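Good morning,

Attaching, inline, the backbone tokens for the sequence recovery test we're adding to the shared suite. The designed sequence is right after.
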């Protein structure tokens, strides 16, 4: 059972994308309440000290840190990052995917530190 604290705001959006269920969860709470710990537990980067946590094995979980420089390689570009993550993908497909996030070709080739 989870402990519920005051001033916790949870926003949930559910939609269907390409025949797959998509879930967006936004968890707003004061500093020190365990937001980072919670996401690390869900992503399997930490183990619970007490109790159980189960995440569906077919769930695809994405996370973008508030301070993106903590998680991004600053010398990489968005294009090179995706090329390394998906080496079998065609360059045109990667540009197309980046374009879906309104990231123009010029920006796709800029270093993340910029």
């Amino acid at each position: 059972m989870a402990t519920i604290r005051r001033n916790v705001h949870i926003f949930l959006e559910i939609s269907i994308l390409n025949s797959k269920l998509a879930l967006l969860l936004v968890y707003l709470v004061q500093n020190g309440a365990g937001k980072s710990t919670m996401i690390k537990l869900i992503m399997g980067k930490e183990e619970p000290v007490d109790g159980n946590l189960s995440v569906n094995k077919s769930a695809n979980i994405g996370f973008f840190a508030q301070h993106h420089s903590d998680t991004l390689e600053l010398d990489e570009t968005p294009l090179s990052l995706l090329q390394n993550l998906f080496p079998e993908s065609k360059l045109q497909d990667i540009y197309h995917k980046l374009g879906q996030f309104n990231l123009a070709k010029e920006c796709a080739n800029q270093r993340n530190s910029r």
